[in-house]
Amino acid sequence: MTREKLYLYDTTLRDGQQTQGVQFSTPEKIQIAKALDVLGLDYIEGGWPGANPTDSAFFDEMPKTRARLTAFGMTKRAGRSAANDDVLAAVMNAGTQSVCLVGKAHDYHVTTALGITLDENLENIRASIAHIVAQGREALYDAEHFFDGYKDNPDYALAACRAALEAGARWVVLCDTNGGVLPSEVGRIVGEVIGAGLPGDHLGIHTHNDTENAVACSMAAVDAGVRQLQGTLNGLGERCGNANLTTLIPTLLLKQPYASLFEIGVGRDALSGLTQVSRMLDDILNRVPMRQAPYVGASAFAHKAGLHASAILKDPSTYEHIAPELVGNARIIPMSNQAGQSNLRRRLTEAGLSVEKGDPALARILERIKVREDEGYSYDTAQGSFELLARDELGQLPEFFEVKRYKVTIERRKNKYNKMVSLSEAVVVVKVDGEKRLSVSESMDETGTDRGPVNALAKALTKDLGRYSQVLADMHLVDFKVRITQGGTEAVTRVIIDSEDATGRRWSTVGVSPNIIDASFEALLDAIRWKLIHHGEAR
Amino acid sequence: MTREKLYLYDTTLRDGQQTQGVQFSTPEKIQIAKALDVLGLDYIEGGWPGANPTDSAFFDEMPKTRARLTAFGMTKRAGRSAANDDVLAAVMNAGTQSVCLVGKAHDYHVTTALGITLDENLENIRASIAHIVAQGREALYDAEHFFDGYKDNPDYALAACRAALEAGARWVVLCDTNGGVLPSEVGRIVGEVIGAGLPGDHLGIHTHNDTENAVACSMAAVDAGVRQLQGTLNGLGERCGNANLTTLIPTLLLKQPYASLFEIGVGRDALSGLTQVSRMLDDILNRVPMRQAPYVGASAFAHKAGLHASAILKDPSTYEHIAPELVGNARIIPMSNQAGQSNLRRRLTEAGLSVEKGDPALARILERIKVREDEGYSYDTAQGSFELLARDELGQLPEFFEVKRYKVTIERRKNKYNKMVSLSEAVVVVKVDGEKRLSVSESMDETGTDRGPVNALAKALTKDLGRYSQVLADMHLVDFKVRITQGGTEAVTRVIIDSEDATGRRWSTVGVSPNIIDASFEALLDAIRWKLIHHGEAR
């Protein structure tokens, strides 16, 4: 049986950016777009060119993708031609292969929000879509408030869609803009729309999660015949978010009848990177990943109930709807039992440390991790610090050098041009091979910009470590994450540092302290010690 | 038309406690149960008496409720009578009016996980339910893995349900234990079950959110005829959680066809306390409430898109599916680079700044926000800094004092007991009323713990501001958020500080710099300036 193509359209960079508190920079947008492209999305909506400098810069700087990069905008305004509408012109100027325009499909909004006649609105849709097509681009029409509009005035909602299709739109996207429609209504209305002659393979669905049904509404629309599905990574989006592609993709790929009926751009290989893509987005947003997220959450395959955990050991399918590896996730069984120790041994093996089953060090390592996590540490991502902790318990951690003391000074004052400037300076005192060494560095980079106290500290620490300095020369910081968390009863700062060296490998280390500089210093120290242990190894 | 009764069954205290990281104390369980009772739930499942001390204590101490308090357990084991099963006896001893027992409905689990015959399992269900009924209690049977079981062996799954009904069970609850079933399957299977003669008004539905469809599956089951719905507050529960009652309740009460078809225990009055109940649970769990949560999330009625915000001002129903007041929530129009002038004016009004439509200052403020957001600032949540920026453009920002310079020193060294300790010290120089003032503070708190450089800086800054120090005495930091973001092409640090004063009001301010101490200082300064402007006002 030939499977039908189901198109996936991502709007993380546009509707996802409507999430309260989310503001992507241009480099972040590019990073996300590349990840979406690797994942296998068919369309990537990049933003609204002309609406703000970040979106415009993104389209200027975005490299070629396999996915169709799409610019978003709105249908031309009444009283001018499509060619003379400056807002539309800015959208066209982004030069994308596909252009998606939102326009009203609900009569009430045409007369109330826009204050124009119903016919003028249809003409705006028609002329705008025709303008895109005339320029050789692919046109999409987002039928705003389609479902509410259809319930009030089905003829007008359909007329808006037909105006776009007749003008050459490749897709008409049925939008539940307010997010209030329920799955059963979506199924019924899409059925009627297709019954009225609109072709399902030219229809898309765009839903919001205001009743926690965005995923279900999307699936109901696919069941009823639409062939393009819009959503966002991690369900970002205006108000309660958009349909969550991180959930929909594995469901479409792994569950019946979808797996047999449809061909989607995401393959099994890409699917196994889904958890990582989801975490990457949280990292960019500096959000704590949602533990309970379907498929990709840290708790999605955690088996807390005692009855469940013991059955899982016999056969994972007893309490798992899919195998966690398929989406790049992992099973969690409480550390306290036997399964906890085998999990730990697997992780140690990954770090190149082989420990016999039943070795008492395993229980000691588990206990120490538990105590540290209680203090605010987190070893989920900080694999480097995890390895050092384990090595310490196993007696396999050399003491390369000893830090005697350090001191960081941050000053802000007027410079000789009467401008406020800041400068940090760090002094580090270490003992290497029995010899005491003092180093000092400042935070100014080549351009004269203050890069801050952690930068100064990192430079001073690696500057003079005797025979080790050479080894550390190719190492640099690639990311620095700070989170305020709870350690015991007091708020503490958790710093996670990602480092990289010339072999291209990356490692993460963690530090915790009420003092952010001290937490950073601890993570830096771990990063250096990890590098010294592994410096001879190829990637 | 008479509305049919739809029963609501809460399992926050039992299945909700299976959430990773959740462990309620007995007083917390009592507090939650009381809130559920006020809300109008029909059943409150309190836990598994005998399984742990907290659950047993809860049933001992729980006061009378209007809702039926229900004890949870499992069907008796094979090879002994119901009366002689000690696990079942502990459940009965809790003395509740209703008792719910989970038992297998999937043939594979009977033979694999339990290792008994299919007939033995049916007998265990029958005898256990009959035992409950014989003691004058109401009996419920949770048909574990019902949907997976029905797909594999429908006759056996139905036989398990019939065994419970024939033995006198008031309810048979169809459970999707692994959470993998989709809404369309639930609809079809429940239809077949009722078609096979099982009465819908004796059937319940219990779903999990592993495909983000727990709410949709519950509604599909109600559509198909079940009349009891199980779930948890805020969707707590094993793995990805249970069906979210915080979402289902307003949907059933406010949306068609449910509002016309069904009578539920929750009334309009109780509904208006829903947001508060949801936040109370997060408070108990010390969780940050999920902003994007449907109905009750802080972002559920936040309108970030400029086009949306201006229409909302004309008529809220243009972009809201229900009025936020109905669930005790509130509308938010945040600031962002996508916001229009009407959005801005509304937000200025909220800050007590009235600006005429068309005032050129509006365009200047928007422009400055855009530039600042490009640098890494974010004004969505930092309402305090937004107001200061606007006041500055409007010429309504007094210069209370001038910061001439500051210096922070962070030192880590061995103390006299040869233990590594850290200490921070901050010196701030300000000019107030023409007079220069130097202040110094250190980061040690009363317990001798180093609270870090930002703490020292905050103390030094407020220590001696002349006539202003008195005003600032009741102000303190309540939260401190740090994220590394992109400002232009370089990584910068964004710090958001939440402050509070004796009136109980809170305000948020933001600072951005490559230097984390400097970013913190900027946010601190804004926090102080905001307080000085508003110090005379009541909350």
TrEMBL record, chains A, B:
Record CDD domains: DRE_TIM_LeuA3 (cd07941)
Coiled coil region boundaries: none
Pathway(s) of this molecule: Amino-acid biosynthesis; L-isoleucine biosynthesis; 2-oxobutanoate from pyruvate: step 1/3
SMART domains cross-referenced by the UniProt entry: LeuA_dimer
InterPro entries given in the database record: 2-isopropylmalate_synth_dimer, AIPM/Hcit_synth_CS, Aldolase_TIM, Citramal_synthase, LeuA/HCS_post-cat, LeuA_allosteric_dom_sf, PYR_CT
Gene3D superfamilies cross-referenced by the UniProt entry: 1.10.238.260, 3.30.160.270, Aldolase class I
Keywords associated with the record: Amino-acid biosynthesis, Branched-chain amino acid biosynthesis, Isoleucine biosynthesis, Transferase
All residue ranges annotated as the Pyruvate carboxyltransferase domain in the record: 6-272
Enzyme Commission number(s) from the entry: 2.3.3.21
GO molecular function: (R)-citramalate synthase activity; 2-isopropylmalate synthase activity
Catalysed reactions, semicolon-separated: pyruvate + acetyl-CoA + H2O = (3R)-citramalate + CoA + H(+)
Superkingdom of the source species: Bacteria
Root EC class: transferase
Gene Ontology BP, a term: L-leucine biosynthetic process
Family (UniProt): Belongs to the alpha-IPM synthase/homocitrate synthase family.
Name of this chain's protein: Citramalate synthase
